[in-house]
Design brief:
Chain A: Keywords: Endoplasmic reticulum, ER-Golgi transport, Membrane, Protein transport, Receptor, Transmembrane, Transmembrane helix, Transport. The structure holds two protein chains of two kinds. Chain A is mostly helical. Chain A has ten helices and no strands. Chain B contains no helices and no strands. The chains are: A mainly alpha, B little secondary structure. Chains A and B meet through helix 1, helix 3 and helix 6 of A and loops of B.
Chain lengths: 215, 10
């Protein structure tokens, strides 16, 4: 565990907490894409299949449980909690899951490190995580009015990806045999998807103005 | 071995 990996995990955790805070205390999920949240449930469910079979550390297992639990509860709130569900932008959030999932399934079957069940599922989760933010970015583009918490949520998620890239660079130079091309490329693609959002986020922060995306 | 699953990241 290095400082970049820890910072990445902590920003990831903070992003989830910010979103839960918005949903649980303000009882609003306005501007939040249910499609993206459902894709994250699938990402964590397929990636952490090993939770009972491979033990790395208490830290790892605990974080896996937190990410599984929080993603499930966010989706539950958005679908079944009456007050929260009422604030959901259903008409704007129209991205099709299969449009993103099918290519990821095919790609995971074709390109993986090892052809075992766990490894293919893990690889699928990496590919799907890379594009899972797309429905959220499309929703932002459509609604254009972004409250502070939603903006912070996406900012923290992007930060998590950025720290993971620093972590990989650090590990590549400090650990022998640490080479994971699939993880790196899908992680890089994922981070690049945030670039546009980051640009406008910093612009609004610098000008001390509310975040607004161009039409 | 073949079935070794070595992912230590989240």
């Amino acid at each position: 565990m290095n400082i970049f990996r820890l910072a990445g995990d902590m920003t990831h955790l903070a992003s989830v907490l910010v979103l839960l805070l918005k949903i649980h205390t303000i009882k609003s999920c306005a501007g939040v894409s249910l499609k993206t949240q459902e894709l994250y449930v699938i990402v964590f469910a397929t990636r952490y299949l090993d939770i009972f079979t491979s033990f790395v550390s208490i830290y790892n297992s605990l974080m896996k449980l937190i990410f599984l639990g929080s993603s499930f509860s966010i989706v539950w709130y958005m679908r079944y909690h009456k007050a929260v569900h009422r604030t959901y932008d259903r008409e704007q959030d129209t991205f099709r899951h299969w449009f993103l999932m099918l290519p990821c399934i095919l790609l995971a079957l074709l390109i993986h490190e090892k052809f075992t069940f766990f490894e293919v599922m893990w690889t699928f989760s990496l590919y799907l995580e890379a594009v899972a933010i797309l429905p959220q970015l499309v929703l932002l583009q459509r609604t254009r009015n972004i409250d502070n918490l939603t903006g912070q949520y996406i900012f923290l998620l992007g930060g998590y990806r950025g720290f993971y890239i620093l972590n990989w660079i650090y590990r590549y130079f400090t650990e022998p045999h640490y080479v994971h091309w699939i993880t790196w490329i899908s992680g890089l693609v994922q981070t690049l998807l945030y670039a546009d959002f980051f640009y406008y986020y910093f612009l609004s922060w610098k000008n001390n103005k509310k975040l607004q995306l161009p039409a | 071995d073949e079935d070794y699953f070595d992912h230590d990241e989240l």
